[in-house]
Amino acid sequence: MGRISIRPPLEDYLVRLMLHDKVICSGIIVNRHQVLTAGVCKPAHNQESRVKILLFDNTTNTITHSTVSKNYTAKGASDLLILLHLGTELDERFSQKPPICRDRPPPHEDVEYWSLNKKGTILRKRITPQTSNLDCRRLIHDPDGVVIGNDTVCLKNSDLSERCLKNFGIPFVWRNTFCGVNILGHNCQIHGKNGYLCSPA
Asked: Which superkingdom heads the taxonomic lineage of this protein's source (predicted)?
């Protein structure tokens, strides 16, 4: 009888990208070789070797290179997410891919918004409603949908902060599946709002 592989909890798929001991982005493990994150998190060519991937158990990994994510987004949004290729293969726990939603959440349903504190040590989760792409475009001054296209999902965020929190690459969850990756951070475009990219499988 073959050994049954148990999928880790969703939190274990979350990683932090560290540069000079500071969190610069987050991402999710999608297989033993790759991490999915926001395109804005792509390390500069001369920084790839200096960015560390910090896993849930505080072990680290390295990045060899990055590629556009074609299999985790709708075609029109493929340039908004990237795959970071890891220097060392992850262990058997990640043989099973994380649950990723095949369709975007219905607009009327709330989703679970994740965020990290400034040091990246505390993960917070809260239920939040979605908002329309039209409203999101208006709030971040993107009337032509250059950033917020038809394949994005925007969430309302009641958090207020005086500075930009670099929660780029952190996921949101719907029905216990990853359904999007934060591409706008928190308060980095406009006070008190966040935008997220829907990333169907």
From this structure: Eukaryota
